[in-house]
Amino acid sequence: MFDPSQLNTAFQFLTAWGAAFTAALWVSLVFWALRDIRGRTVDPLLRILAVLAVAALFLPGVVVYLVLRPNYTLEEEYQKSLEEEALLQTIESAQHCPGCSRRTDDKWLVCPDCQTRLKKTCHNCRQRMELHWKICPFCSAPAPVLRKEQASMDKSLPSEPAAEAAERSEIVSLLEDIEGDL
Ligand SMILES: [Zn+2]
Ligand SMILES: [Zn+2]
After folding, report:
1. Alpha-carbon gap, residue 36 to 25, rounded angstroms
2. Ligand number with the minimum distance to the CA of 113
3. How far apart (Å, rounded) are the C-alpha atoms in residues 12 and 151?
4. Is residue 32 domain-resident?
5. Domain with 67 in it
6. What secondary structure letter does DSSP report for 132?
7. What percent of the chain has pLDDT over 90?
8. What distance in angstroms lies between residue 109's CA and the mean position of ligand 1's atoms?
9. Mean pLDDT across the chain, nearest whole number?
10. How far is the CA of 160 from the centre of ligand 2 (A)?
11. Are both 51 and 108 inside the same structural domain?
12. Looking at the CA of 137, which ligand is closest?
């Protein structure tokens, strides 16, 4: 009943099947490594090394490759760089006082710390304007030049009326002197 040649055939079949399976696994792992490393580096030498490691060492090669491959894919690296750029931009776009470099608010006209002029207002529509704007973007009224702006700001300083008053009293006393002389 028992035929040793039948067993032999079955064994040969199993061996062939195993060999075919192993070969298919080997080829697909090499392809996988090639595809994976292409997504992770543009360095041709690293790509060749990765594929060679998997091709030469087979399953242990895959383990070695998994340990040594770059952590992030190029796509992930790109996303990360975009995120970093966006973060940098928000940090840079945060406004700082040119006088004391403290953080300022976009709505502020004057720095509350060092009283540096940050914005000016349109004399026509009272909208906030950047100091360097020459025309109001809201009502197209020409903006007063910075020197005038500075002057009008100086006038609002508390020391100015006192100086003006002193000047006036000086003139008055001078006029009185002249009157007295006459
Ligand atoms: Zn300041
Ligand atoms: Zn305006």
Report:
1. 16
2. 1
3. 102
4. yes
5. 7-73
6. T
7. 60
8. 11
9. 84
10. 28
11. no
12. 2
Distance 97 CA to ligand 1 centre (A): 5
Q: How far is the CA of 85 from the centre of ligand 2 (A)?
A: 35
For position 157, what pLDDT does the model report?
A: 47
Centroid of ligand 1 to alpha carbon of 164 (angstroms) = 28
Residue with tokens 């006038």: 155
Identify residue 70 by its one-letter amino acid code: P
Higher pLDDT among residues 163 and 32, named by residue? 32
Rama region for 9: left / alpha / beta (φ>0; ψ in -120 to 50; rest): alpha
Give the closest ligand to the alpha carbon of residue 127. Answer: 2
Q: In 52-114, which ranges are E strands?
A: none
Looking at all shown ligands, the one closest to residue 123's CA atom is 2
Name 84's bridge partners. none
Q: How high is the pLDDT of residue 180?
A: 64
Confidence (pTM)? 0.50
Same domain, 60 and 105: no
For 110, the token pair is 């004057």
- Whole-number Å distance, alpha carbon 92 to ligand 2 midpoint, is 28
Query: 112-164, pLDDT tens digit by residue?
Result: 999 999 999 999 999 999 989 999 999 999 987 654 445 445 444 444 455 56
CA-nearest of 134, 131, 171 to 150 is 131
Number of domains in the chain: 2
Which one of the ligands is nearest to 141 CA? Answer: 2
